[in-house]
C-alpha cells in the first residue's frame, strides 16, 4: 500500500513538472470561474435585496402619503364643501381622490428618478378604473388572493416587465375608517358592504433592476479582463522561467525527450484507434442501405426519450411504418429494385421528419419507426398521414400491389403521457398493434390505437405539435 502511494505521489510530481503550464492554466481558470460565479451570485443577491428594500420604502411612503392626504386635506376640503373626485380636472374647484393623487405622485417620482412605477388595483374597481384598476394579469390575480389571506404580508416576484427585468412588489390596501362611508355610499361603488380592515385593493410597486444587472455584468467583465491579464502575465513569466530551465538541462533531458516522443507516438496511435472506434460505433448505428439510423440506435434513443417524457410529464408518440406488399415487389422486380425502393421510401420519410428532436430509423426489412417527442395523438396522425401521402406521391410503380399500381405504406400510431410504472415497450407494442390494424383495414392508411396505455398520466401535457 505504501509503495502504491509513493508511486502515485511520484507520478503526480512528474506530471506536474512535465505539464506545469497546463496544470496552472486549469487551476487559474477554475479559480477565475469560481470567483466570478461567486461575485455574480453576491451581486444578484444584493440587487434583489436592495430592490426589495426600495420597494418596501416606496410602498410605505405612498401609503403614508395617501393616509395623510385623506386625513389632513380631504377631510378639511369636504368640510368646506369642496368636491373630491376622480375627474377633478373637468370640475371647477374639485380636488383628486386620495388613490388618484397617490398614483400620480408615485408615477411622477418614478418617471423622473429611476423608472419606478406604481399601480393600485382591486377586484372591485370603480367604473372609471375598470381597465387600469382591475386584476389584469397573473401577478395581480395571485397578489390579490395572497393578500386576502395574509394582508399584513407582502407579495413579490422578480420577472420581466415590458421586456425588462424588474421587481413587482405588492402590499394590501385595507379599508380605513375615514374611507368606508364614501365607498359604501358612493352610487358608482361596485360594493356597498365594505368593513373596516377588509382588503379593498393592492398597491403594487414596480422596481426596474435591469440597469443594475447590466452594471453588474459590466463589472464582472472588467473583473474577468483584469484577472485574465494577471493570469496571462503569470503564465508568461512561468513560461520564460521554464524555457530557461529546460535550456540549461537540455543534455540531461535528451533521453526523456526520446521517451516523450515515443509516448507521443503512442498517444497518436491511441487517438487514431479511438477515432477509428468512434467511427466504427457511428457506422454501427447507421443502416448502410438507407443511411438512416438503425434498430440499435433507435433502441438507445427510444429509452432516453421515454425517460425524458416520464421526467417532464410530456407526451411521446411512436409511428410504426411498413411498405405495403414489399415481398411481392421484391419477388417480381428483384432485390436490387427492392433495395432502391427502400432507399426512395426512406428518403421521403426522412424529409418529412422535420424537427431536430424527432428520430427516424429503419426498424428492419421494409419497416421503419419514428419517435416524436412532445407530440400527442393528433400531431402524430398529421405526421403519419403526410408520410403516407409523400410515399404515395413518389409514384413508384408496383403492378402487383393489391392497393393500386404504386408503392404505398401503412402506419400505426401510439401516443402516451408516460408513468414511471409503464415501460417504453408498452408504447412500441401499441404502435405495432395499430400497424396491424392498418394492414387489416386494407393498407395504405394510418391507424391509431384507441384506449391503449396512452393516457394514464397525472397532470396536463406540455404543449405539443
Count of spatially separate domains: 3
Largest β sheet strand count, sense and barrel closure: 5 strands, mixed
Model regions low in confidence, pLDDT < 50 over at least 5 residues: 451-465
CATH topology of the largest domain: Beta-Lactamase
Strand order in space, largest sheet: 8-9-7-10-11
| Relative helix content | 55-70%
Which architecture of the largest domain does the CATH hierarchy give at level 2?
2-Layer Sandwich
Distance between the termini: 61 Å
Q: Quote the beta fraction.
A: 5-15%
Radius of gyration computed on alpha carbons? 36 Å
Q: What characteristic shape results from the CA principal axes?
A: flat
Helix/strand-derived category reads alpha+beta
Overall pLDDT metric: 81
Q: What is the C-level CATH assignment of the largest domain? A: Alpha Beta
Number of strands: 11
Q: What order do the helices and strands follow?
A: HHEEHEHEEHEHHHEHHEEHEHE
**Count of helices?**
12
CATH superfamily of the largest domain: PAS domain
Organism: Spartinivicinus marinus
Keywords: Membrane, Transmembrane, Transmembrane helix
GO molecular function: diguanylate cyclase activity
Protein name: diguanylate cyclase
